[in-house]
Amino acid sequence: QVELVESGGGSVQSGGSLRLSCAASGYTASSVCMGWFRQAPGREREGVAMIDRDGSTNYADSVTGRFTISRDNEKNTLYLQMNSLKPEDTAMYSCAAARWCLLPELRWQSAVRWGQGTQVTVSS
Fold it and tell me: What is the pLDDT of residues 75-119, one digit of tens each?
């Protein structure tokens, strides 16, 4: 059974750091494109960062230089290191995976599997 389980969310003050994890089961993380998306109340879901099967990455402009996406193939786990957090980073963060993605546009090109999400709250 294909499953994605996020962890690592929480509350932090502005300027702080968090690391999100997404454990994948049912398939090999390195065989798919994976990404982190977020959705704040009243706003549409937006792509934060993606990593393709070859390890190429892309980030939303709003997080470039502050967030780092990575993947541990042995642990079959996706990570998002978030530094210099801002109140506007507050959202529900979800990891996702699909066979194909359009990395430059942070979009999916095939059926997507989503995790349940983990809340990140940044206070000023």
Answer: 999 999 999 999 999 999 999 999 999 999 999 999 999 999 999
The pLDDT assigned to 26 comes to 85
| Token pair for 13 | 């003050």
DSSP state of 88: G
DSSP 8-state code for residue 33: E
Task: For strands 101-102 and 91-98, give the pairing.
Answer: unpaired
For residue 27, give the nearest of 3, 11, 46 by alpha carbon.
Answer: 3
CB 83 within 8 A of CB 15: no
Given the structure tokens 């996020």, which residue do they identify? 6
Backbone angles phi, psi at 79, to 5 degrees: -125, 155
Q: Cα(122)–Cα(91) distance, rounded to whole angstroms?
A: 9
First CA to last CA distance, the chain? 40
DSSP state of 26: S
